[in-house]
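Cross-posting from the chemistry board since nobody answered there.

I work mostly on the small-molecule side, so proteins are not my area. We synthesized zinc ion and want a rough idea of how it might sit in this target. Sequence and SMILES are below. Is it possible to get a predicted 3D structure of the two together?
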Amino acid sequence: MNEQIPLGSESLADNPQADEQRDDHTRELLSDVAYKRLGIVNVAFYGKANAGDGAWVLIDAGVAGTAGMIRRAAEKRFGKDARPAAIIMTHGHFDHAGALETLAEDWDVPIYAHPLELPYLNGTASYPPPDPSVGGGLMALLSPMYPRHPYDVSRWLQPLPEEGKVPHMPGWNWIHVPGHTPGQVALWREGDGVLLPADAFITTRQESAYAVAVQKPELHGPPAYFTQDWEAARASVERLAALEPEMVVTGHGPAMQGPEMREALHQLARNFEEIAVPEEGKYVRNPAMPESGDAYRSS
Ligand SMILES: [Zn+2]
Ligand SMILES: [Zn+2]
């Protein structure tokens, strides 16, 4: 699978000069929204600079071994020993939950996830195996080696509240965007159109190690090797495109903004089948659904 929908560098939302001056190891997009790239994945920070202890939120928890990097960035941005009010998990894949157990131990703060994602985070279920045949890149070929065992942070874990509000993030809502995983959520702030779509769609070709390294922006469907239900994934992109976001901070790839990004998102939603869905693949014909229990494996 080649490039999906190319995006020009003028749609990048980053401000590298300002980031360098601030030197807090994050990419700040708005006064209260920043993110950090940890190799192959992003984590996001909600909260204003120097907010202090308990006055900010971490969204996702990176790959294993990055707890120190996340903590140091958070201390630089929010203040010494500043712990978040909570950690919100968009989903439980290894590249989003890798440092979660360490951070939870260190910070002792609540962790929120969608009810359908809880089994992957409370020690009871593994994700179905990835499909290395889709996406056609090194990251896809290596995917069977990626950890998919359950994490167990049940001591801190809570379901996101039912009415769609995001704890400790006033003005934000969570939106259920299944397909990539059963309980994936996007975070959305209607007031200024900021969307964190998790891996519902991304802005780099995650299947390719080369594309991930150079981060040439493109609008891309969910990472193919890990996507369990393509029809649900399509419906999720449609739902997010309808929001008409101003800015997107995806799980992988650079943050993007503006009309070109929006148009690309609509194009992806309209032509999802041709653009994002692999022609063949384990979960293309046989989606792993939560209803049948197929999405939750014992090993
Ligand atoms: Zn994922
Ligand atoms: Zn991911």
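Reply from a structural biologist on the board:
Welcome over. Reading the output above for you: The chain has one domain: 5-285. The longest strand covers residues 33-38. Happy to explain the token format if needed.
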